[in-house]
Amino acid sequence: MKKLSLAIALFLTVLSTQAQTKSIPNITAQAPDEQESLAKDYFSQIMGVAMSATSNVKLFQFVYDWIGTPYHLGGDTKNGIDCSGFAYQLYNKVFNTAIGNNSRNIFSMVNPVDKEELKEGDLVFFKIHSRAITHVGVYIGNGKFAHASSSKGVMISYLADPYWTRYYYKGGRLLNDQQPVQNN
Description:
Radius of gyration: 17 Å
CATH class of the largest domain: Alpha Beta
CATH superfamily of the largest domain: endopeptidase domain like (from Nostoc punctiforme)
Number of strands: 8
Organism: Mucilaginibacter robiniae
Number of domains: 2
Signal peptide: 1-19
CATH architecture of the largest domain: Alpha-Beta Complex
GO molecular function, one term: cysteine-type peptidase activity
Protein name: Glycoside hydrolase
């Protein structure tokens, strides 16, 4: 959250400075709804995902805060995390929902969803060099998903990237009795 707060403060400072020099309204004095709108614009730009009025800002804040965290098999902290640890932490903190502790357990908790039907917060599963599910990420919109990559740590990737297309298995949405709670 410190990284996010610093980024938003810097963003607001730059815009406030622009407001003073270019007659743009000073946004630091705006209402919370307007600040949330600015946050959505900010995350849309830095993550390349068009956020809608219903987008979950907390989801994007969480992803942004974890970007660059190194990969560590079995890890679940900012010192190192694996794909299922990242998905677990995200669902716990953003949706106040506990999910499984490995990609196969998590898959058992979802209803399959067609790739074209994916929504923010849905899970995406991959079978990388295996017949079993070996990787999980969280869909954030516009064909992108956040995940903990074994080579680059927590990052955002495109489902349409040839590598991910090759190993994509299915998307999934939590079963009705385990639906996440929106914590905006």
